Amino acid sequence: MRAAWYAEWLKLRRSRLIWMTLLAVTVGAAAAGLFMFISLHPGKARDLGLLGAKAQLATLDPTWPSYFGLLAQITAVGGVLFFGMTMVWVFGREFAGHTVKDLLALPTSRAATVTAKFAAATGWSLALTGYLSAAGTGIGLLLGIPGPLSGQVLADGGMKVAVTALLTIAITTLFGFGASTGRGYLSGVGVLFAILFTAQIVAALGYGAWFPFAVPALHAGITGDQSPAPAGYVGVAAVAAGSIWLTIRWWQRADHTR
Amino acid sequence: MMTAAADTPVVQVHDLVKHYGAVKAVDGASLTVAPGEIYALLGLNGAGKTTMIRTLLGMIKPTAGRVSLFGARVSSGAQGLWARVGYLVETPAGYPELTVAENLALTARLKHLPAAAAQQVTGRLGLEPYAHRRSGDLSLGNQQRLGLAKALIGSPELLVLDEPANGLDPAGVTEIRHLLKDLAAQGTTILLSSHILAEVAKLATRIGIIHAGRMVTEIAAHDLSDHVTRTLRVRCHDHDTAERSLRQGGYEPRSDVDGSLAMTADEAVRHPDKVATLLVEAGCPPLHLAVEEEDLESLFLRLTVS
Predict the structure, then answer these.
(1) What is the DSSP letter of A16?
(2) What are the boundaries of each domain within chain A?
(3) Does A103 sit within 8 Å of B59, measured CB to CB?
(4) For residue A188, which of A88, A128, B67, B302 is within the disulfide window of CB 3.0 to 4.6 Å?
(5) CA torsion A216→A221→A223→A226, rounded to 10°?
(6) Hey, is B219 helix, strand or coil?
(7) C-alpha span between A89 and B133 (Å, rounded)
(8) pLDDT in tens, B254-277
(9) Whole-angstrom Cα distance, residue B164 to residue A89?
(10) C-alpha distances in angstroms, B130 versus A24, B94, B110, B114, B144?
């Protein structure tokens, strides 16, 4: 397992994906800062042309808990893309680069390789979450968000972002399965978009609280007060466990003809 | 580590069948490779070579039949077996963002070998000048060397190489041939597939010709001469007189498009001196007289295309 982890982490560390996702998360942190700036100074924002005449962005409270809620929402929505792309890349690249065949008949088992891939993608996604939280907090301090940034506020906010990240990472495991069975990036990205659209539709129909793929956004408070149902959280865990198990089984049992 | 008795075949494929729906990729092929052999699989594109190799490596499940390495049945989870096998399947593929040294170090780690194993093959395959170059920037020939180096890491007992000479220049082909012969002399068993027939003829100790998923024939390299056709080819100034004289002498010459007379009868091939004497006495001494041996390419085409 250590060998597989070494291999996956080395590949990820040297990839352009690291810089692309860092850039994307930086943009996410900047967007959170922009929204908070508008909330803090709506008049100034309008004068600077940051707000159109019909803009309705004043719903964000200029408080630290509200700001951390926004960071959590960025983690839930953006995370499906950033964490999801990491998951798709980690699996899809082996098929796109024809390197998968070199991982199939080794003393390191296929189960260890697949587990290490999920672990590497999870590790990087958590690192991105840490970066978003740190950068977001720094921007919040620069903006001078009212109220003390107490340890409790920081811990609560950080916990909300971290749990949202874990829920989001859990559902992206399905993209790893998609990229494996489809033998490339395209199928993984296809699953990603299918999930994004389905979650929107199911949430609009009012069943989001039970739908695992809508749970991270609801947990982050994207719809205000509506929280996910306990069954929704169980569903997220089931999606993660099922996706990991199915991916391992697929790597072990499929005919690898490419 | 599992050990096999000295007389246990390293590779054993028995009645292997692999169907993809109506497509019969392999259709009842069998082969056995003994320790220290260099066995070459020859076949046209789509003959079933790569399917057979992937099945040997546990990448494809057979529809029917049995595949064993070192006497143990192959399965995808046979980690004990894979520690004894090095392979290069189809085109070599390294991680383009990693250097040659990192690609090899990564393979060594996945094979549970020390880093020194990677350094050893770097030297053996002449990759030292490229050790710190990203593999994505390598020429095709050096990518092939990298693929071979990954297969050779840890001095495996069995090497399975799909087209090992692909992309190499003539000097590289010779170098790899010598390397593989040295490894075989030290006891490494090698199963390779190739379409470079001349190279196979120089390298293999046994050749299996596969066509449409079936093993057409197996030939030991030292028996190759028994399988190839020999032809006595004669050219004279007076072609018609020479042909008439040969027929009167009991031969059955065939006129070829290049103007020569060709004879495949055993008597003619074994005693070209008698043919020469006959032609001289008939007043049309030969300008050219030679026994030509069918090359492996012609043999291969004769056995498969028909």
Answers:
(1) T
(2) 2-253
(3) no
(4) A88
(5) 90
(6) strand
(7) 23
(8) 998 888 999 988 889 889 999 999
(9) 30
(10) 34, 13, 22, 21, 13
